[in-house]
Amino acid sequence: MRLRAPLPGWRAQADVVVIGSGVAGLTTALQIRAHNLSVLLVTKSSIDAGSTKWAQGGIAAALGPGDSPSQHEEDTLVAGAGLCDLAAVKVLVSEGPEAVRKLIARGAVFDKSETGEIALTREGGHLRNRILHAGGDATGAEVSRALLAAVSDDLGIEVIEHALVLDVLKSSSGRVCGVTLHVIGEGSRDGVGEVLAKAVVLATGGLGQVYSQTTNPSVSTGDGVALALRAGAEVSDVEFIQFHPTVLYIGEGSKGQQPLISEALRGEGAFLVNNRGERFMRDVHKLADLAPRDIVAKEISRQMEITQSQHVWLDARGMKEFSERFPTIYASCKEIGIDPANDLIPVSPASHYASGGVRTDLNGHSSVAGLYAVGETACTGAHGANRLASNSLLEGLVFGARIAEDIAANQLPQEQPVAQDSYDFLLSPSIRGELQRAMSKGAGVVRSEASLKETLKTLERLKGAATIYASVDAWETTNLYLLATAIARSALERRESRGSHYRQDYPESSNAWLKRITQKLASDGSWSSTITEVNSDLTIVK
Description:
Layout: E1 2-3, E2 11-13, E3 16-19, H1 23-33, E4 39-42, E5 59-60, H2 69-79, H3 86-105, E6 120-121, E7 131-132, H4 139-152, E8 157-160, E9 163-170, E10 176-183, E11 191-196, E12 199-202, E13 213-214, H5 223-230, E14 235-236, E15 241-248, E16 256-257, H6 264-267, E17 271-273, H7 293-307, E18 312-315, H8 322-325, H9 327-335, E19 345-354, E20 357-359, E21 371-373, E22 378-379, H10 392-410, E23 424-425, H11 432-442, H12 449-462, H13 472-493, E24 515-521, E25 527-533
């Protein structure tokens, strides 16, 4: 399958094409350059507009005294609720400290303690202080700044901004050998073109825009996962959408990207209360307000239902130097008339992170030769049913480096594209709002067989809204449609509650579902799914 689009009007070439300019894409590009391979880095908006710069939380790594990768591993496995791939977790936590040191060597500056050492804090689900922060609540912005500076200094990395990736190119052997792009620019690279490469790395970030409310920026429409599906790649764990429990409630009817209220506030003493002023998390989990995100989000949703409210409250009035410690959050609160020093902060859950994505092995290979995925676009299995706080930036650093090593070691061939036996399709951008509302209502924090079937029924109806007019909005909407379908299908199939997937009609976890659901899209548009043991091998064609 492919998106309906004009024929390519220009061509470019590089050893490797990296799609995305967040921590995963930038790290991969820089590590590939260490092997003297040329890189074409493609980004959908301006190069600094991805999700990474919005990350308020930090980077988790076992760097502090008394901490160890094994302890980080244990916390990650607990959060992942039985569905983590153990080998992937071991790679993440054992290679994480060195990946962070390399980031610091590239110029990233993290907050220091009074003794001059890097200040390590705690976040939900961590039993040790192992979170590095920068600028208080601006860690992502600092990580992005440091990596972008390194990229700009490297003449072997060509950057194309304002370009939406459409579909892969394949050779006669079925190997991915490039991509088609649409560039909103001027001159020879305006409109649809094709880029030839020995390997394609998908680092397009999240898919939060499939829901009405999200912490993700507007560019987060899951283009890489949708492209992979159309290319015939497997996607896994897509039912596990993490909803950040504390997103600033800015009013009824708000949609799109919402301001995030980092759980670092709760790590430093802030706590949740309902409309009655009751601290409800102490009776729910031994970690109370610092319980894993899925537990907090589910309980907030329950409290909202009980009190018939659109939000609960975060009490941070006892925190000192709030405006200096959390300047971004402080500004967001002040913008809606909230003074955190004196007022309770209204918060509610919103779509935040996709633990699933393109199924990969430990070196980033997808199930389609020549196609790699990294970061939030990928499903390494490291997050299981629920990502542990601040493991996401670390994942981009660690697995981006591993992909670069793999590409360099395998000396991949440059093959030529051939016409594919596939059909094209495109949906009208007019359906996006209804699609997002259907997903938020039926496949959000709380789900059931009835709600998911109703969501799939809506999606099937929206599938009829085809259009012949290619545009960025239509391409994005079509991508969101594929993602919504995959999420709802997997959520309906998993008849239990686990991690960030909560079924109201199956409220308990079941050992029978210690398994991974993998979705695949056939060339005729039909879906299939397979269920495998968590640590089963992924068949990879190099």
